[in-house]
Amino acid sequence: MDRLDNTVRPYAWGSTTAIPALLGTEPTGAPQAEMWLGAHPGAPSRTGRGTLVDLIDTDPEKELGPASVARFGPRLPFLLKILAAGAPLSLQVHPDLEQARRGHADEERRGVPADAPHRNYKDSNHKPELICALTEFDGLCGFRAPADTADLLDGLGVASLKPYADLLRAHPEHAALREVLTAVLTADPEEMSRTVTETAAACARLGGAYTPYADIAHHYPGDPGVLAALLLNHVRLQPGEALYLGAGIPHAYLSGLGVEIMANSDNVLRCGLTPKHVDVPELLRIVRFEAADPGVLRPAAAPDGEEVYPTPIDEFRLSRYVRADGTAAQDVTLPTAQILLCTAGTVRVGDEELTPGGAVFVPAGEKAEVRGTGTFFRATVRV
């Protein structure tokens, strides 16, 4: 097996303290947003045998397992992260697999440069993702029922929000959500900025259920994404709880530390809370305009102590082990490649001792036994 040396990405929304606290290192004062574990070409993990990309390219079937290569090709189909949000991330959605393939092919055909700021589809893959909280974790996920959002808007007492509340009550769910999001994202910028400013002040004054949206507005003053965010469910995860974000579901992470796993893709369509490009027509084509409960996930326990987070896709499978007995060895060998990530205590995988933030890549079929007392996550595929 190979111990992983991983890159921390310094995105502006990142916490300056959460990842250093986990790793037991001194904060630098700069944001530390995501630690990437995997074979994404943008920041592949490093091993004693080269990068994880190099290692897998040398012998994909040996490293990943024949079944994984047959199903997903000669690459690791997921990216594992430690994510630390100190400020809200952009409000966004991801395409499904067919939408990604068509969108990528269209942009390639039109010659849109891969690094163009208005490029929507960096690759032809979908990007389902799962976030599991390590600390209390706040986010937005999916549309709230339109009538409930109308009541929330009315409660703010902002006159310019009344047309949106009226639309939410006047039409069937799909049409109401689509019309209001379209109106918010295509409104006159100066008028929208005034509405957002008034809305932010009202949210801050009223507090309670409005508090998360006041914080969003503090970070993104005048951004129409603040009103788009008011259409969505606010959810607070406790440690160990998770959210699954499928295709077309608008979402944003607001604050907290978590383990995130996703299909290996960079395809994001933004709805706001960002200075980056917002392609409104393409966004409206991808968004699923339906109200739904956020669907907080709790892991399902297996007899061997593994706690699995259920998801409807096969590119990744995330589970957790909480070990109280430090002496008994636990066999976690699999016929597919896996990344084991320690998040609490001290666990030993073979000869590698892992403390929080430490991780190993275990090739397919390689014997892997775990000892020690602590918590570790297992990331692999489902075949």
Question: How would you describe this protein?
Answer:
With 383 residues, this protein is of the alpha+beta class. It has twelve helices and 21 strands. Strands 1, 14, 15, 16, 17, 18, 19, 20 and 21 form a nine-stranded antiparallel β-sheet that branches. Strands 2, 3, 6, 8, 9, 10, 11 and 12 form an eight-stranded antiparallel β-sheet that branches. The chain has a two-stranded antiparallel ribbon with strand order 4-5. A hairpin with a 7-residue loop joins β15 and β16. The model has no long low-confidence stretch (mean pLDDT 96).
- What separation lies between the terminal Cα atoms? 21 Å
Assess the beta-strand content as a share of residues. Answer: 25-35%
Sheet having the most strands: 9 strands, antiparallel
How many separate helices?
A: 12
Which spans have pLDDT < 50 for at least 5 consecutive residues?
none
User: How many β-strands, per DSSP?
Assistant: 21
**Share of residues in helices:** 25-40%
- Overall mean pLDDT: 96
- Rg for CA atoms: 22 Å
- What shape does the CA trace take? globular
Structural category: alpha+beta
List keywords for this structure.
alpha+beta; 21 strands; eight-stranded antiparallel sheet; 12 helices; 29% strand; 383 residues; nine-stranded antiparallel sheet; globular
Secondary structure blueprint with pairings:
Layout: E1 2-3, E2 7-9, H1 18-23, E3 34-38, E4 46-47, E5 50-51, H2 52-58, H3 60-64, H4 66-72, E6 78-85, E7 91-93, H5 97-109, E8 129-133, E9 137-143, H6 146-154, H7 162-170, H8 173-186, H9 189-206, H10 211-219, H11 225-229, E10 232-237, E11 242-245, E12 251-263, E13 269-272, H12 280-286, E14 300-301, E15 306-309, E16 317-323, E17 330-331, E18 338-349, E19 352-354, E20 359-362, E21 369-380
Antiparallel strand pairs: 1-20, 2-3, 3-6, 4-5, 6-12, 7-13, 8-11, 8-12, 9-10, 9-12, 14-15, 15-16, 16-21, 17-21, 18-19, 18-20, 18-21
